[in-house]
Design goal:
Length: about 350
């Protein structure tokens, strides 16, 4: 909903500045009635209608949620989720400052990977090309949930339409963009590969002292360093973090020079590797539900959590599809879902 900007101060109190960007400032705000905290992005000048259309259209757990907008001819204020942990880029920088020169554990990287794939698949399903996917545009809530944010240069594509405008952050540009070629959803997958590389190495995938050097390194695929694959003969190194061959191969596939050879987000979600990670997450949910069953109580909060779980489960099943790689995981997820559903049906009378 878009409202006149003079109504903004009637609804919210500004607490403090929590971010600054190229186009404006982000404030932590509090609603005067429900006392909930949100983030408000104040954009200097009039916001593009296409960005507002996109932000108000998208509703997904791993995409920033916009609640309402205020605007006039001079400025736009977008009220959205407040992500307490800030953005992924700053989290990586804090990790370096604290002396943790090893990347995130494989388990964390995989959990974040699945969330980003689910968010990106949803965005692409809605014919939206993000075009500025980078670690500073990945926001993190207090519970570890990732949110893809900042659709300021996003573009809605129709059919087989390609984008032509050179836009985005230099370090995350795909080779086809740096060469001035037409590009599509695969360019977002290249950017995702760069983000995963940062999680594992705490370094940008492609860097350089000058802009031209960065572009050259991208076009020639000159990575700052290789991601180390697990060496079972030497697991005592404290200087680096090592990862499984499956994860490293996935990142390398995203960073393929040829955009036609990069896997799409929905395709990856149907792979056996990602299906296995998704399954493990649902096994953990199932275990928590069994613990509740032992207690013998179901609260209204737990019922709401279950309803949310059901919606997310339906979307995951849709993404997993009927591919051969994921059919086994699909059946096990179905079994987990049935167990939880039967449990809540039995306990319905206690609510």
């Amino acid at each position: 909903m878009i409202r006149p900007i003079n109504e903004y101060e009637k609804c919210y109190n500004e607490i403090k500045i929590i971010g600054r960007g190229q186009f404006g400032i982000v404030y932590l705000i509090q609603h005067k009635q429900n006392m909930k905290e949100y983030a408000a992005k104040k954009i200097n000048g009039e916001c593009q209608n296409s960005e507002l259309d996109i932000l108000l259209k998208l509703k997904h757990p791993n995409v920033i949620n916009v609640y309402e907008c205020f605007r006039d001819q001079n400025s736009t204020i977008i009220v959205m989720d407040h992500c307490q942990k800030g953005d992924l880029w700053n989290m990586i920088q804090y990790r370096i400052i604290e002396g943790k020169n090893r990347g995130y554990t494989q388990k964390i990287v995989e959990q974040w990977l699945v969330q980003l794939l689910m968010g990106l698949a949803y965005i692409h399903e809605n014919n939206i090309l993000h075009r500025d996917l980078k670690s500073s545009n990945i926001l993190i809530r207090e519970d570890g949930q990732l949110k893809i944010a900042d659709f300021g240069v996003a573009k809605i594509l129709s059919g087989d339409q390609m984008a032509k405008t050179i836009t985005g952050s230099p370090f995350y540009l795909s080779p086809e963009i740096t060469q001035g070629l037409d590009y599509s959803y695969s360019s977002d997958l290249w950017s995702l590969g760069c983000i995963l590389f940062e999680m594992c190495t705490l370094k940008r995938a492609f860097d350089g002292q000058q802009f031209d050097q960065v572009l050259q390194n991208i076009q020639q695929r000159k990575l700052q360093q290789e991601i180390l694959i697990q060496d079972f003969q030497n697991q005592t190194s404290q200087e680096t973090r090592q990862y499984s061959l499956e994860l490293v191969n996935l990142i390398q596939s995203l960073l393929n020079i040829d955009p036609s050879k990069r896997p799409q987000a929905k395709e990856l979600l149907r792979s056996s590797y990602i299906a296995k990670i998704v399954l493990q997450s649902f096994v953990q949910i199932n275990t928590k539900q069994q613990d509740i069953q032992k207690i013998g109580q179901v609260t209204m909060i737990q019922k709401k959590a279950h309803d949310k779980y059901q919606k997310q489960m339906s979307y995951v099943k849709q993404l997993l599809g009927n591919s051969k790689d994921s059919i086994n995981a699909q059946s096990q997820v179905q079994e987990c879902d049935s167990h939880v559903e039967n449990f809540f049906v039995k306990k319905q009378t206690t609510i």
